[in-house]
Amino acid sequence: MKLLIDTHTALWLFNDHENLSQTARNCLLNEENELYISIASAWEIAIKHSLGKLTEFPDGVELFLSEVYDCPMDIVDIQPKYVMMVEKLPYLHQDPFDRIIVATALCEDMAVLTIDENIRKYDVKCIW
């Protein structure tokens, strides 16, 4: 299965956080799954870190990307078709990072590994 990892899921994975569900852990460890993360997640980390809202990653996006590179996951760049899909999404959620994650998952037939209830409002497969 192709899994797109939401930003908070990646943070919880990298910090071995107790909020990471057992189902999510199993999906992340299952070698049959293809793991992806949007470059938008790194962008979100950079913004949050610059605002002082990301204490669990004191080195910010550099450490985040280092963790991503150490994992068996691929970074997905933002493609024009994802931006066009964002335009077609119902305006159920204001977070632009979540909206591009939803659009990416829809365009690439991926499930989103997320606890985020706002992402679940969209017609996208979510696992938690």
Structure description:
The structure is a single chain. The chain has 128 residues and is of the alpha/beta class. The protein has a single domain, classed as Rossmann fold. It has seven helices and five strands, in the order βααβααβααβαβ. A five-stranded parallel sheet has the order 3-2-1-4-5, sandwiched between helices. The radius of gyration is 14 Å and the shape is globular. It starts with a strand and ends with a strand. The model has no long low-confidence stretch (mean pLDDT 95).
From the alpha-carbon coordinates, what is the Rg to the nearest angstrom? 14 Å
Measured by DSSP, the beta-strand proportion falls in: 5-15%
The main sheet comes to:
5 strands, parallel
Runs in which pLDDT lies below 50 for 5 or more consecutive residues are: none
- Any idea of the CATH topology? Rossmann fold
Q: Helical amount among residues, as a percent range? A: 40-55%
CATH superfamily: 5'-nuclease
Strand segment count: 5
Instruction: Write down the domain tally.
Output: 1
* Spatial sequence of strands, sheet with the most strands: 3-2-1-4-5
Q: What keyword list fits this structure?
A:
128 residues, alpha/beta, Rossmann fold, five-stranded parallel beta sheet, 7 helices, 5 strands, 14% strand
Quick summary:
Helix content is 51%, strand content 14%. With 128 residues, it is an alpha/beta fold.
Secondary structure layout:
Elements: E1 2-5, H1 7-14, H2 22-29, E2 34-38, H3 39-50, H4 60-70, E3 73-76, H5 80-88, H6 96-108, E4 111-113, H7 117-120, E5 126-127
Parallel strand pairs: 1-2, 1-4, 2-3, 4-5
Helix pairs in contact: 3-4, 5-6
